[in-house]
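Escalation from tier 1.

The customer reports that the assembly of two entities below gives different structure tokens on two consecutive runs. Tier 1 could not reproduce it. I'm attaching the input and our single run for tier 2 to review.
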Amino acid sequence: LQLQESGPGLVKPSETLSLICSVSGGSISTTNSYWGWIRQPPGKGLEWIGNIYYTGSTDYNPSLKGRVTISGDTSKNQFSLKLTSVTAADTAIYYCARPRDYCFDDWGQGTLVTVSS
Amino acid sequence: QSALTQPPSVSGSPGQSVTISCTGTSSDVGGYDRVSWYQQPPGTAPKLLIYYVSNRPSGVPDRFSGSKSGNTASLTISGLQAEDEADYYCISYTRSSTFVYVFGTGTKVTVL
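Tier 1 run:
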């Protein structure tokens, strides 16, 4: 399984951060599969953002709820992250990952998103 | 939901053993055998080392072992090697309110 993040590396404050995770070697439609996003501010620890189930249902970190949306596109075998009203505190490396058996066993390489005017 | 508490750093000489603790609550670490550990060398994505408290995925050396007692999980690295120098994170499943995963604060392992 391979996951690859893509999207703009620079987003202006108050705008929307949008990232896509392309999945190969597996399908986001696989029964009982989950797919997730995790971020890591430069020099800091990891933070769970949220997950999407193969049915399309989602779970989000309450600290981001209201600003975050994760959705899937089965025709492209991709899932995406949207984070609205970003500030400098949202500057981070964003990883997509596959949660399985209550752990994250596959990760993308990560993409740095900087929030700055 | 607070992060799981890990020591900021641990160190050891080659060949020695080091143990990293991961302390949570009865709502996460203590409530489920669903603790996992990850290794993150500088500039790379995290890699799964341990799942379900003490299980190793194929390819992970048996120098890495996990355990749990009460609300604290532990990762032990035996026979420390230079390539083990990295950041290590624990993650626990939780169903406290709508939270699903809570992450540890991270520990830097230095090989002296």
